[in-house]
# Entry
Amino acid sequence: MRSKDPQIMQKIIEFVEKYQKENNGKSPSKALIGEAVGMTRASASNYLIAMAERGMITYDGHNVGTTFMNNFNPEGSSVLILNNSASCGKPDIQEQDIAGKCTLPVEIFGRGNFYIITAQGDSMEDAHIFTGDLLVVDKSTAPSVGDIVVALIGNETTVKRYDGVKKGKAVLSYMNESVYHGKTITLDEMVCLGIVKSVIRTMD
# Structure
């Protein structure tokens, strides 16, 4: 086997790691690797084979894995981002259209049947939910007392704390005592669209 340039091998590793970080773990093609380090696709393939034999990377003929990426688990939950905003003040009619899609890492958010909506209003500020926050909602579990839920009221959605069933009615509570002291919503039947599991906020 002809010797391989250590500097080129290091450049390949650096390029592969950068590419995979930017593409959710996807492996670059041999053509892209060759272009990145200034060689042909065939030469890049020869380098990858040699590097795999030396234990520098893993390579199955198609996918390349580096030490960093092999220790990184890119597994995540594919999540729809809805362009409606869940009202955290007065309930407001929302269009449940899909605005986009993203992947939430399992290591951070856990597993669930998630979707994301944007909060509006001030009625949940005591729960640290503010206008513009992205709410990660799990629709695969039933609510328990104390959960923050997205509830459907007619054709309207609202985010409130679920306080269980009292006198045959489901109780949803506002969580901003300074503005909505003791205010609740009572429902003969509550349609729960999910439980708020995480809040994502952009710091200004």
In short: The longest strand covers residues 76-87. Residues 6-22 form the longest helix (17 residues). The helical segments are 6-22, 30-37, 41-53, 67-70, 106-109.
